[in-house]
Amino acid sequence: MPDSPALRELRARLDAGLSRRPRLALDRSDLVSAAVLVPITERDGRPHLLFTKKSDSVPHHKGQFSFPGGIVEQRDASRVEAALREAWEEIRLPAEAVEVLGLLDDTETRATSFIITPVVGIVTERVDFVPDGREILAGVHRLRFDTGAWFAGRGQPGFYPEVTVVFEVTDPAEHHHVPLLLSPYGYTTYRGS
After folding, report:
1. Residue 71 CB: number of other CB atoms within 10 A?
2. Same domain, residue pair 74 and 162
3. Same-domain check for residues 99 and 182
4. What is the per-residue pLDDT for 134?
5. Could you report the per-residue pLDDT of 99-119, keeping only the tens digit for each?
6. What is the domain-level CATH number for residue 167?
7. Potential cystine with 119: which of 23, 73, 83, 88 (Cβ 3.0-4.6 Å)?
8. Among 123, 150, 172, where does a domain finish?
9. How many CA atoms lie within 13 Å of 35's alpha carbon, on the beta-carbon side?
10. Which of 6, 9, 17 is nearest to 120 (CA)?
């Protein structure tokens, strides 16, 4: 079970942050309820977020980088259950391998009619993620990080207002880990394993 000092510290900070602030919960009958899992994994003793990229064959959010997730179905007892079910369907992440820490604020999408509930969870076991073939695509991908806003939110100066990382996926069944190491006046990225 992953349990590095960095992951323990992050878990404690997330527990404290999620427990002391009220969550914005939206309930609108004109919008479709959806949930995503914000999966925190551990790699080389450090916490990382896992993203997928939607293919052009899915009905919503084509070509977008996203967390695993989808529409809350009638069979789902909760939004947490929906996020865990979708993570299993999309990347074969078993629900029992996720320690759910809590929910972030519900968010309305601008281009589509969804309310999305982000479910924060730590992946507590080693998992070989297997994309379902519809979510992750081979090809050239681009991640854009709004580093200027990130530093401004912390009251720090930053030299790069944004960082764009472009990488190529040749085997969509292979795990891809693209960390961004950031300081106020520099950054580096590499392909992790």
Report:
1. 14
2. no
3. no
4. 60
5. 999 999 999 887 778 899 999
6. 2.60.40.180
7. 83
8. 123
9. 23
10. 17
The two three-digit tokens of residue 154, written as one number: 């912390």
Taking only Cα atoms into account, the Rg of the chain, rounded to an integer number of angstroms, comes to 17
Q: Does pTM top 0.70 for this prediction?
A: no
CA-to-CA dists, residue 18 to 54, 62, 101, 152, angstroms: 28, 31, 8, 22
What residue type is assigned to position 6 of the chain?
A
Q: How far apart are the first and last CA of the chain?
A: 18
* Total domain count, the chain: 2
Give the tokens for residue 117: 């509930």
* 68-101 confidence digits (pLDDT tens): 998 999 999 999 999 999 999 888 899 999 999 9
Under DSSP, the state recorded for 46 is E
* 12 and 74 inside one domain: yes
Rounded to 10 degrees, the C-alpha dihedral 43/45/47/51 comes to 0
If asked whether residues 146 and 109 sit together in one domain, one would say: no
Q: Rounded distance, CA 39 to CA 136, Å?
A: 16
Tokens standing for residue 120: 């924060």
- For residue 56, pLDDT beyond 70: no
- 82 lies in the same domain as 50: yes
What are the DSSP E strand ranges found in 9-162? 32-43, 46-49, 52-53, 65-66, 69-71, 98-103, 107-108, 114-123, 139-145
